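User: Please fill in residues for this 387-position structure.
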C-alpha cells in the first residue's frame, strides 16, 4: 500500500546567501538589534535641571491683568513660527534622502562575494534576474519522499505514479555529463503538466566532473585546467536550460558531482573551484545552487569548506549514502548545518518499483528542501532571454 505523501510549503528565501544555513533560513521574528541598557550616568543627569516655568498663578497680579487678548495672539503666533522653523531645520534634505534610499535599494539588490566578477548585467546573453526584475519570490520546499530516474517518464507514467508514496521527482534537465542525454519526454509542456498533477520538481544538472572521477563513463567529462571559468560557463548553461523548461527564477538547481577518488588533494581543489564558480553564478542569476554528491567525497569536502568559512558554496546539500534514511543524522554533516529545509538524502539506488501498473527503475530519496518554481505557461516571457 502506498505510504503517506509529504508536505509542500511556500516561503521566501534568500537566494544570495553566502553560507548554506543562511541561504534558506527563515527571517527572524525581529531584525532590529536589542536596545542597549542606558549607562549608569546619563547625559540628562549631567545637565543642569531647568528652572520650572512660572505658573500663571505665580505671576504678579499686575502682569496678569496687563496681558491683553491681542498680546496673547502675538506670543502664540511667534511660538508656532519658532517651532515650525525648528522642525524644518531638523528635517533631512529631500535630495539627500532620495540618494540614501537609492543607495540602500542598490545595495540590497547586489550580491556580495569575495570572488572576482560579482557584477550585474548579463553573461552569455543570460540576464541576472535579481538586477533586472528585483528580488524574485523564494521557492517552496517539500518535506517527504522523492525519486529520481535517468530519463523523465511519460505523462501517463507520472499520472499512474500519483498513487505512490512519492511527491517529488528529480529531473536531469541539462549538462554534458548526463547518463541519459536524450530526454524524449522532458519539455516545457511536460514540466507544466506534471506540476499541475501535484508533482514537485528537483532539477539536476550533470556537467563537468572531477578530474579523478571514479566512474569510467564520466571520465570523458573531466574538468580541464580552468575550473573557475568552466564553472561559470556551465552555470549560465544551466540557468538557460532551466528557463527554457519553465523553471522560474529562485528555483533550486542541483549540480551533480559523481564520486571521485578520496584523498587526492589536487583533484579536490580543482573540483571545489568548479563547484564554487558554478554556485556563485547560479546564485547571481537568481536561482538557488544545490549540490549532489557522494558522502565520502564531494559532500565531505564541501562540508569541510563550510566549516572553514569558505564563500560561494551551494545552499542545499543532496547527499548519497545507500542504506537507511538518515536525513537529519548523517554523521559527515554537522547537525546544525544545511538546515532548515536544505537537505536531501539519496538512500537507495537502482530500485525497481511499480505503481498504477507502471514500472520504473529509480533512486529513492527523503527530503526537506526547496523545489522548483514553475512559471505560468500563458504569455510567459523568460527573464533569462538575451536583451
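Assistant: Residues filled in for all 387 positions:
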Amino acid at each position: 500500500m502506498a505510504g503517506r505523501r509529504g508536505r509542500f510549503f511556500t516561503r521566501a528565501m534568500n537566494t544570495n546567501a553566502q553560507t548554506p544555513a543562511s541561504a534558506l533560513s527563515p527571517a527572524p521574528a525581529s531584525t532590529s538589534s536589542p536596545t542597549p541598557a542606558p549607562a549608569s550616568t546619563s547625559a540628562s543627569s549631567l545637565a543642569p535641571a531647568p528652572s520650572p516655568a512660572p505658573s500663571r498663578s505665580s505671576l504678579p497680579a499686575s502682569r496678569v491683568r496687563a496681558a491683553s487678548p491681542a498680546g496673547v495672539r502675538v506670543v502664540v503666533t511667534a511660538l508656532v513660527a519658532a517651532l515650525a522653523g525648528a522642525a524644518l531645520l531638523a528635517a533631512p534634505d529631500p535630495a539627500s534622502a532620495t540618494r540614501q534610499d537609492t543607495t540602500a535599494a542598490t545595495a540590497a539588490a547586489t550580491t556580495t562575494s569575495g570572488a572576482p566578477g560579482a557584477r550585474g548585467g548579463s553573461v552569455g546573453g543570460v540576464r541576472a534576474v535579481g538586477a533586472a526584475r528585483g528580488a524574485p519570490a523564494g521557492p517552496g520546499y517539500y518535506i517527504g519522499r522523492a525519486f529520481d530516474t535517468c530519463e523523465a517518464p511519460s505523462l501517463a507514467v507520472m499520472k499512474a505514479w500519483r498513487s505512490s508514496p512519492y511527491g517529488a521527482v528529480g529531473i536531469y534537465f541539462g549538462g554534458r555529463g548526463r547518463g541519459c542525454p536524450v530526454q524524449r519526454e522532458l519539455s516545457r509542456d511536460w514540466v507544466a503538466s506534471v506540476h499541475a498533477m501535484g508533482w514537485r520538481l528537483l532539477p539536476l544538472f550533470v556537467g563537468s566532473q572531477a578530474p579523478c572521477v571514479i566512474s569510467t563513463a564520466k571520465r570523458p567529462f573531466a574538468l580541464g585546467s580552468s575550473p573557475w571559468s568552466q564553472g561559470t560557463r556551465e552555470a549560465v548553461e544551466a540557468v538557460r536550460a532551466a528557463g527554457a523548461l519553465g523553471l522560474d527564477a529562485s528555483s533550486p538547481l542541483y549540480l551533480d558531482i559523481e564520486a571521485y577518488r578520496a584523498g587526492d588533494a589536487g583533484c579536490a581543489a580543482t573540483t571545489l573551484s568548479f563547484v564554487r564558480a558554478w554556485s556563485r553564478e547560479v546564485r547571481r542569476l537568481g536561482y538557488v545552487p544545490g549540490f549532489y554528491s557522494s558522502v565520502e567525497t564531494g559532500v565531505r569536502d564541501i562540508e569541510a569548506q563550510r566549516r572553514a568559512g569558505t564563500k560561494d558554496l551551494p545552499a542545499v546539500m543532496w547527499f548519497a549514502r545507500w542504506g537507511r534514511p538518515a536525513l537529519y543524522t548523517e554523521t559527515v554533516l554537522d547537525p546544525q548545518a544545511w538546515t532548515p529545509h536544505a537537505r536531501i538524502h539519496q538512500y537507495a539506488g537502482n530500485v525497481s518499483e511499480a505503481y498504477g501498473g507502471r514500472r520504473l527503475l529509480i533512486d529513492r530519496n527523503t527530503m526537506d528542501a526547496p523545489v522548483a518554481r514553475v512559471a505560468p505557461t500563458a504569455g510567459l516571457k523568460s527573464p533569462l532571454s538575451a536583451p
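For context: Confidence is low (pLDDT under 50) at residues 12-125, 129-136, 378-387.
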